[in-house]
Write a structure and sequence with these properties.
Radius of gyration: 15 Å
Number of domains: 1
Shape: globular
Strand content: 15-25%
Helix content: 10-25%
Bound molecules: guanosine-5'-monophosphate
Structural class: alpha+beta
CATH architecture: 2-Layer Sandwich
CATH superfamily: HIT-like
Strand order of the largest sheet: 3-4-5-7-6
Order of helices and strands: EEHEEEHHEE
Length: 130
């Protein structure tokens, strides 16, 4: 496997690993719609949307696997993610939004590079009533 952009990540033991699917989108290695980018976070449209607005807000760093680790390790970065979610809601969903973090496979997490699901215009979606 080639790393055309030279992007690699280190896990908590310092071992190098392949970049996550989200990092590959950020670097342009695979296609994706980037909705927002700041110095520390970026957002993409989810490939399998569950509501008219379904974005993923992702730290550029792959250091944290889930929000539990992120909140303990860098609460300011977590606050940056919430601010980005609000910005997306303002731009695409009238300023209101639902924020979901899946934490662990038994809770539905499939990508272990922490990310927030930002859902907007819920009444148009199958999430109504939850
Ligand atoms: P999780 O299940 O880990 O909380 O969320 C992972 C999300 O990433 C899923 O909602 C899934 O649809 C999305 N996803 C997986 N692969 C891709 C991809 O290649 N592009 C985009 N835009 N989203 C993806």
């Amino acid at each position: 496997m080639s790393h055309s952009f030279g992007v690699v990540a280190a896990d908590r033991l310092g071992r190098m690993s392949d970049p996550s699917i989200f990092t590959r989108i950020l670097t342009g290695e695979i296609p994706g719609e980037i909705l927002l980018e700041t110095d520390r976070v970026f957002a993409i449209r989810d490939i399998n949307p569950q509501a008219p607005l379904h974005a993923l807000v992702i730290p550029k760093s792959e250091q944290y696997r889930d929000v539990t680790e992120l909140a303990a390790g860098d609460p300011e970065l977590l606050a940056d993610m919430v601010a980005a979610a609000k910005e997306l809601a303002d731009a695409y969903a009238g300023g209101e939004y639902r924020l979901i973090f899946n934490n662990g496979a038994r809770a539905g997490q499939t990508v272990f590079h922490v990310h927030a699901h930002v859902l907007g215009d819920i009444e148009e979606s199958k999430l109504v009533g939850f």
